[in-house]
Amino acid sequence: MLGLRALLGIGVLVTSRGGGLLAQKGVCPLLGGNSPLSRECPRHQSTMAQAVKFLSQEEAQHIDEELFTEYQYSVDQLMELAGLSCATAVARAYPLDSLLKPRPTVLVVCGPGNNGGDGLVCARHLKLFGYEPTIVYPKRPNKPLFQNLTVQCEKMDIPFLPEMPSEEVVIDEAYNLVIDAIFGFSFQGAVREPFGSIISTLKKATVPIASIDIPSGWDVEKGSPDGLQPDLLISLTAPKKSARHFRGRYHFLGGRFVPPALERKYQLNLPQYPGTDCVLQLS
Amino acid sequence: MRGYACAVAITKAFPLSSLSRKQPTVLAVCGPEQNGAVGLVCARHLRIFDYEPTIFYPKRSHCTLHQDFTVQCEKMDIPFLSYLPTEVQLINDAYNMVIDAILGPETDIKSVKEPYTGILTTLKQVKIPTASVDMPSGWDVEEARADGLQPDVLISLLAPKKCAATFSGRHFLAGRFLPYDIQRKYELNLPPFPSTECLVQL
């Protein structure tokens, strides 16, 4: 067909920041040729050959940084997708009709950083899914991102407790489960108050705990034998090394936004998510 | 989240297994404003869902957020066309479907100029299915227009627009994120979304 050949001859039908056709890794069908994408997709190869990679703290930090600098994602974007993944994993592991208490109550404990932000987003989506979250958010960063997320939750009629219940029986009686959104993969060093006491209380509670990304208080790589023992762990982007020490019933992977090039670079060997799901159960 | 919900709607309306071409190619035509930005995000999620989107985005937004969306797509190895062929058969042969993310409720229909008038003329002639984001491009937000696009699928974002009342194709409501007080204030009466899904077929 004359038209198509003329387009092929031009060869600059496709523009990209990289400049020109040769830089394009993707394949535009108007240029003809079979797509190498499916055959070369590392994800298809990896599920057969290699296990998913468990990240060190440094790798996790580098990946995060690259997503924001080179790939130009905003923190808001990724936090929203991460929080949605967490809420979805919770809904899969603890469906509404499986909850024992008369109301589908959930306590969401949010820490002072991005893990706390993930928790706020998670709470908001849990509300949309029909759960009744309550938030404890003792230390709030003075940044618009977190202030906005807080307002969004307030406007969804999600209550904020003035402080964490100090008695674990109160938690056991009032809530079906607790979402631990205190510390994430950047955590290092000593746990400062009020989070030390909060984590102690949570360790004594008998209701299931779902931790976002890292069980709070754990060393991000080595875990913690006498630390929090969650029932559900939602690893975001890729599991961290400490996840090898996870002994709970449910380990989900969430944060389905990793560009193929980044996955290849760090050899993440991420397994295939089912369909359009934003979570994948690893165990 | 709108772009994400849009992409999920596309996978429901056009599952990978149902596509007739050997490769799961999709053409996303993105306009200069919000509607186009949603199209960019939708394309990125479709790539994650293993579709092969190609984007045509002739007039780039000045908004930094939208520029970031463009970079994110490029970094996902999504090709950007430098022009849209006027020979419709090329589009029919290369893609399984077209996503119309050109004009949305924010656009004043009377102010639409080139290149969009030409693009709409071309797209009106394609034989492959078209899915419109939020409202069919070329329609008025309150009223359907026969000289606008006539898509097979409409993906309304957050709430259907008035013009959608007469839409006779497959209609999805995508985007489960509206706070309850807004829903109450505008008496939206949105249908319930199943379990954790972000879209519902109307």
Automatic annotation (TrEMBL), chain A:
Q: Which positions carry the signal peptide feature in this UniProt record? A: 1-23
| Cofactor binding comment, as recorded | Binds 1 potassium ion per subunit.
* Positions of (6S)-NADPHX binding: 114-118, 184-190, 213
Question: For K(+), which residues are the binding ones?
Answer: 115, 180, 216
Does the keyword Calcium feature in the UniProt annotation? no
Q: Which reaction does it catalyse?
A: (6R)-NADPHX = (6S)-NADPHX; (6R)-NADHX = (6S)-NADHX
Enzyme Commission numbers on file: 5.1.99.6
Subcellular location as annotated: Mitochondrion; Secreted
Q: Which GO terms describe its molecular function?
A: metal ion binding; NAD(P)HX epimerase activity; nucleotide binding
Could you tell me which residue ranges the YjeF N-terminal domain spans? 60-270
User: InterPro entries annotated for this entry?
Assistant: YjeF_N_dom (IPR004443), YjeF_N_dom_sf (IPR036652), YJEFN_prot_NAXE-like (IPR032976)
Q: Which PROSITE patterns match?
A: YJEF_N
Quote a single Gene Ontology cellular component term: mitochondrion
Just give the chief location class. mitochondrion
Q: Which UniProt keywords apply?
A: Isomerase, Metal-binding, Mitochondrion, NAD, NADP, Nucleotide-binding, Potassium, Secreted, Signal, Transit peptide
Class in the EC hierarchy, top level = isomerase
Role summary: Catalyzes the epimerization of the S- and R-forms of NAD(P)HX, a damaged form of NAD(P)H that is a result of enzymatic or heat-dependent hydration. This is a prerequisite for the S-specific NAD(P)H-hydrate dehydratase to allow the repair of both epimers of NAD(P)HX.
Provide the family line: Belongs to the NnrE/AIBP family.
Q: What is this protein called?
A: NAD(P)H-hydrate epimerase
